[in-house]
């Protein structure tokens, strides 16, 4: 599966305990997303395009309206990295 650098970086943050908070407008459509690390920092390169690609590939999931987290499929797709600065 082809995963871009930004997608890989987001998956790595989520695998380490991060989460994606989303906001909805008019009940259904997601308008803004923010990816937080487990330390509470915001991932700068994360936007709606990356979010939609991860969701379309089913690498992230949300259960019962909770924040998005990495799915089992996402855990299998993420590559091991010492750090995600590169």
What does this protein look like?
The structure is a single chain. The protein has one domain (5-72). It is built from three helices and four strands; from the N terminus they run αββαββα. It has helices at residues 5-15, 48-56, 72-77, and strands at 19-25, 29-36, 60-61, 69-70. Strands 1-2 form a two-stranded antiparallel sheet. A two-stranded antiparallel sheet has the order 3-4. Strand 1 (19-25) and strand 2 form a beta hairpin.
Computed structural class: alpha+beta
Largest sheet strand order: 1-2
Helix content class: 25-40%
What is the helix tally? Answer: 3
Low-confidence stretches: none
What oligomeric state best describes the polypeptide chains here?
A: single chain
Please provide the ordered H/E string of secondary-structure elements: HEEHEEH
Largest beta-sheet characterization = 2 strands, antiparallel
Number of strands: 4
* Tally of individual domains: 1
The gyration radius over C-alpha positions equals 12 Å
What portion of the residues fall into strands of 2 or more residues?
A: 15-25%
**Inertia-based shape:** globular
Features:
86 residues, 30% helix, alpha+beta, 3 helices
Q: How are the SSEs placed, and which strands pair?
A:
Blueprint lengths: L4 H11 L3 E7 L3 E8 L11 H9 L3 E2 L7 E2 L1 H6 L9
Antiparallel strand pairs: 1-2, 3-4
InterPro entries: YjhX_toxin (IPR018654)
Pfam family, one: YjhX_toxin
Protein name: UPF0386 protein NBH20_15350
